[in-house]
Specification:
With 251 residues, the protein is mainly β. It is built from 1 helix and 19 strands.
Length: 251
């Protein structure tokens, strides 16, 4: 990827300049003459309500609610010296945004990352040397996430968090065991693991791996895989050690 010959430090970039994690830089430092103007869609989201009418009564009966996807709209300007240079820069920007899903963050909030896909692109008018355009990134998951953090299963967690991976090493051979959090949610692992071997569990995939082989069928029938949350304490029903990789999240 051809980069700007004169990259700028973050404190000299627009406050809402967008950093693309897989390219390890801000767009401004990759596409010369590109500058972020505004970003919308980063604020609070309202819930989509699921209700039923009450026959002969006031209001509605609440059934449930969920957050919609988040749309981030970035307006920008590209400054070029020639029409040919403008086309080259626009092509470069387009190639940056091609990934079906990618991680990003904004200059004024570098600790929290969104994952999204470009769902619309309004290119600047061709033939102009200083031209405005915009693109929208749709985040199917509306939350933003911290970098990966690590717990041994017994330490305070600040805010809400989502587990990416649980590595558990039993002290002795086991044939069946459970993993439980502070909410009483549990995962039952019904398979043989030798003492000292590490079993890798990704509850939100879901998958189980041991010695390079997948054993997803080892999840017990009563396992609460989908909802299993990161909490201060994660315990196993057998002796062993944990390495838990998780990310905190917020709107």
């Amino acid at each position: 990827m051809l980069k700007n010959a004169h990259p700028m430090p973050s404190d000299m970039l627009p406050s809402e300049a967008m950093y693309i994690v897989k390219f390890n830089d801000f767009i401004e430092n990759i596409v010369s003459g590109y500058q972020t103007l505004t970003v919308s869609g980063r604020g609070m989201l309202g819930y989509s309500l699921h209700t039923n009418d009450i026959s002969g009564g006031d209001g509605q009966m609440f059934i449930g609610a969920n957050l919609p996807a988040r749309d981030l709209t970035i307006e920008y300007v590209i400054d070029s010296k020639t029409p040919e240079q403008f086309i080259k820069k626009l092509d470069q920007l387009t190639n940056l945004l091609l990934g079906k899903q990618f991680w990003l963050y904004f200059n004024d909030d570098p600790m929290w990352h969104y994952q999204g896909t470009v769902s619309s692109f309004e290119a600047p008018e061709k033939g102009q040397l200083l031209a405005k355009g915009s693109f929208t990134i749709t985040c199917s998951d509306p939350f933003k996430y911290s970098d990966n953090e690590v717990s041994n299963g017994n330490q305070p967690i600040s805010g809400q968090a989502k587990i990416d991976e649980i590595d558990f090493k039993p002290n002795a051979a086991v044939g069946k065991f459970s993993i439980t959090n502070d909410y009483g949610q549990s995962m039952i692992i019904d398979g043989t693991v030798n003492g000292g071997d590490t079993i890798i569990i990704k509850p939100h995939v879901p998958s189980i791996m041991l010695n390079g082989t997948y054993h997803t069928e080892w999840f017990g029938f009563a396992s609460d895989i989908e909802n299993f949350a990161m909490t201060n304490n994660i315990r196993a029903s057998v002796d062993g050690s944990f390495i838990i990789k998780y990310r905190r999240f917020r709107l």
